[in-house]
Amino acid sequence: MSARILLVTGAGGVGKTTISAAAGVTAARRGISTLVVTVDPAKRLADALGVGNLGNLPTHVTGEPKLWAAMLDVAASWEAIVARHADPEVGDKLLANPYFRAIADRFPAAQAYAAGEQMAEFVESGSWDLVIVDTPPSVGGIDFLLAPGQARDLIGGKLLRWLTGAKVPARRALYRVTARPVLRLADMVLGGPLLEEIADFLLDLRTLYDGVEQRAKGVERHLRSARTVVVTNAYPTPMREARRFFEELPEGSVVPSAVVFNRELPHEWEQISAVPANGSDLDQRSWTALRDNLLRWATEARRNADARADFAARYGATLASTPWKPQPPTDLDALADLVAASNGLDEALFA
User: Which domains does the chain have, with CATH numbers?
Assistant: First the structure.
C-alpha cells in the first residue's frame, strides 16, 4: 500500500524546511511511520533533526522511533533513473557524457524530476505511512509539480524526435540517413565534431523516453493525490510565488490544500497606535528610539494582517500561521511545539 504524501512548497527562505521537520516530528510522535525528504542543498533539515549529513538513503532520527529523514542526491538519483530506464550499454554512455551530467546537475527542472522519481520510490516502498517532501525552492516549488510533464517534453520533444528518427527498431539507421549528414556538414563548417557528439548524446537520451514517460505518469498520479501546503510570508516575493500556485498551475494538476503564513507577527502589535510618554528611567533619545521601533513593528503587523486577509479573499484559500519567534526551532521538542503553538497548522498539515 502506498504511503500518504505531504508536499511542503513555497519560495526559498520562507521556512519550508522548518515546517517539514515540524510536521515530521509531530506525525512520528503520533505513531505514524514518517519519512521527511528534503531537496534543499543547505542541509537545514539535517541540522534541525540532529542527524548530521543526509543522503538518498533514509537515516533514522535518534530518539524518534517512527521518524526517518533523507536528502536528495541529484547525481545518485539520476544514476538510478538511467539504470531503471536504459540498457546497460547506453546507460554507461549517458552517465559518462558531460552533456548529460550538465543537464542532471545544473538544470532545476532536471533536479525536480529526479526528486519526483525518488519520492515515488519512497512512497511505493511500503516502508512508511507518510512521506513529507520539502520541495526545491526553484520557482517557489512549482518546478517540482510540473517536472514530470517537462521531462516527457524534453525527451520526447519534436526536435529530439527529428534528430533521432522515428520510434522504430531501426531508428539509429534512420538517424544516420537523416540528421547525421546535416550535423556532419555543420561540423565541417565549425571545424570539429561537436554537433555530431551532441547528436549521439541525444540519440542515447531518446532511449530513455518509454521508461520516463510511464514513470512520469506515475509520479503525476502521486502528486495529484498528495496534500500540498504552500508556505509563505507577507513580503512581496514570497507572496508572488504563493499566488502562482493558484494562477499558473494547469487545470487538473495539484490544488494547494492550505497556505501557511510563517512567523506571523503577534496580533497585539496591530493595536499599537501611540506610545505613552516616557515613564521610565530611559533617557529621551533611547525612549524615542524605542517608541519609533514599536510603532514601526505595529505598522508591519497591520500590513501583514492585510496581506493575509487579501490573499484569503482573493483565492478562497485555507490559511494557517505560525507564531513569530526570535530564533527558529533547532531541536525536536521545539519543532513539535511549533505545530502545537500555531494557528491552524495542525489541520493544514494533517486534515
Answer: 4-142+216-350 (3.40.50.300)
